[in-house]
Amino acid sequence: MNYTQTLEFLFSSLPAYERTGTSGYKPGLERITSFCRHLGNPQRNFFTVHVAGTNGKGSVSHMIAAVLQQAGYRTGLFTSPHLKDFRERIRVDGEMIPKQKVVNFVDKHHDVMVASELSFFEMTAALAFDYFAQSDVEVAVIETGLGGRLDATNLILPIVSIVTNIGLEHTALLGDTLRKIAREKAGIIKKSIPVILGEANPAYNEVFETVAAENRSKLIYAEQAVACTPLGRQGDRQGFRLVRTRDGHEFEVELDMAGLYQYHNVITATAALDFMHEETPLSISRRAYLEGMRDAAANTSLLGRWQKLADAPLTICDTGHNPHGIAYVARQLRESKYEKLYCVVGFVKDKDLAHILPHLPREAHYLFTQAQSERSVPAQELAAKASIYGLSGEAIETVPQAVERARELATEADMIFIGGSTYVVGEAL
């Protein structure tokens, strides 16, 4: 197979959650455990950091990977989904896995993967583990796909587990309350492996405390380990003043990721990196931390997090796609400066629009659209549902057409926002 045929196999021959939704979700660790045993358990050849959570896990994973890279470690990074190129999911020192490596892996293990009935995500995770081992990776940052307890990545034994926060998402699969979802996410906690909770919440703190106690694992509340004060924009970056609780040390850090919500992610990543330096075999200097954070997005090629696409009109895209994430996006929109706001938005069918749409600004003009995915809500249907919440605009069938229409309508003093779905952002990019 060539690379195109290989991708067609990965995406089409077996059901993928990202394409079909709940029907493509195959929980459980039996298949991935068996297949990794077939590969020689490559995931045991390097240190790992395991990151779960409703929002922020991608940003936190990229921050940590960037700092580890700057500290001189050969660093793997496994994230999902991708926005433009499948290979974004698997990186070593910021570089995407070569196409030929993807082709070779699938050619070599095709029959076993089919016989094992692996899901798309299971195949991708195993590919990442195998490539990291081949590439002499020293430490890999592994982001969960969905949930935690039954996620395909949960066969790793990390040096630290991280849960960024808990919000309502994938309720049909993970549970319909914060406590139920927290229980699934807390499933990444391993015996005697410390866990860092990024954002505390009385609604679910007890869940993590209970699971950590059951596993005799140290639970670290990031917000108790690090105090943070935003310093605002500093050129193309935003600044933060941090105070480390354990010794009172105060320092300032710059981050090349926009978005007010990165405040929470900076706290989580900083607490995790400080723990790694203090209590694991990894050594992370202050200089590596500061330089890694300063160029985190650039050095790991992070896309879609309050990413600026143009200046006049200001055009921003963001992958926030659940109530928790959209609330952050809406707050950022309220604090942005523009004469008129145009929003190109689309969503997938399993999203709780009744808890998402009320967050969005009513004064904006909406270009309701749909990505090229079986899971997308049709543009006309989305427009009708949005009107219930006072959101008005026009329905446009494709993302490129919707973006083009927004550009036709907007003046240089206006703002265009593109989001609602990872697929919408991916097609816009």
Overall 3D geometry? globular
Count of separate structural domains: 2
Q: By helix and strand content, what is the structural category?
A: alpha/beta
The number of distinct helices, counting runs of at least 4 residues, comes to: 18
Query: Any low-confidence stretches, pLDDT <50, length ≥5?
Result: none
What topology, given as strand order, has the largest sheet? Answer: 4-3-2-5-1-6-7-8
Strand percentage, roughly?
Answer: 15-25%
- CATH H level of the largest domain: which superfamily? Mur-like, catalytic domain
Radius of gyration: 21 Å
Largest sheet, described in full? 8 strands, mixed
Overall residue-averaged pLDDT value: 92
What keywords describe this structure?
19% strand; single chain; Protein-Tyrosine Phosphatase, Chain A; 17 strands; 429 residues; 18 helices; 6-stranded mixed beta sheet; UDP-N-acetylmuramoyl-L-alanine:D-glutamate ligase; 8-stranded mixed beta sheet; alpha/beta; 2 domains
Could you give a quick summary of the protein structure above?
This protein has helices at 3-13, 17-20, 30-39, 57-70, 99-115, 120-134, 171-174, 178-185, 205-214, 222-225, 262-279, 286-294, 296-300, 323-334, 353-356, 379-387, 399-409, 422-428, and strands at residues 47-52, 75-78, 90-92, 95-96, 139-143, 160-163, 195-197, 219-221, 226-234, 237-244, 250-255, 307-311, 314-318, 341-345, 365-368, 392-395, 415-419. It has 429 residues and is of the alpha/beta class. The longest helix is centred in the middle third of the chain and has 18 residues, at 262-279.
